[in-house]
Design brief:
Helix content: 25-40%
Distance between the termini: 40 Å
Strand order of the largest sheet: 1-3-2-4-5
Shape: globular
Strand content: 15-25%
Number of helices: 4
CATH class: Alpha Beta
CATH superfamily: Glutaredoxin
């Protein structure tokens, strides 16, 4: 069993709690949104990686996370079928995504075109 990773790994990342917050957050600029659930072992083990990636790209990309159980309407709207799931938006439009647990380099590669 994977030990529970504290949410403190995501402390520097905005938590989105409402549909309105989500819409406003992705509306302008480049945004990374991490869809996760506390009951999901791969999500908990990915939290530190997402925290590191968000810290490394923070000058160019703002990051946020959504607890899918608390905001199922957004997960459904974004057609999230499995978690963890990370979506990169630019000015409100999805430009890239990764599903499942990936390594840090894969997330950095996804964000690279938007950090230059």
């Amino acid at each position: 069993m994977i030990p529970k990773m504290p949410i403190k790994d995501l402390v520097e990342i905005k938590k989105i709690s409402t549909r309105e917050e989500f819409t406003e957050f992705i509306r302008e600029g480049v945004r990374l949104v991490y869809f996760r659930a506390d009951w999901c072992p791969p999500c908990r083990s990915l939290d530190p990686t997402i925290g590191k990636v968000a810290s490394q790209v923070r000058d160019s990309i703002k990051a946020a996370w959504i607890e899918v159980g608390d905001l199922q309407s957004v997960a459904s709207q974004e057609k999230i079928q499995s978690i963890p799931y990370v979506i990169l938006y630019k000015d409100g439009k999805r430009v890239d995504w990764l599903d499942g647990r990936k390594n840090e380099d894969q997330y950095l590669l996804m964000t690279y075109p938007y950090t230059q």
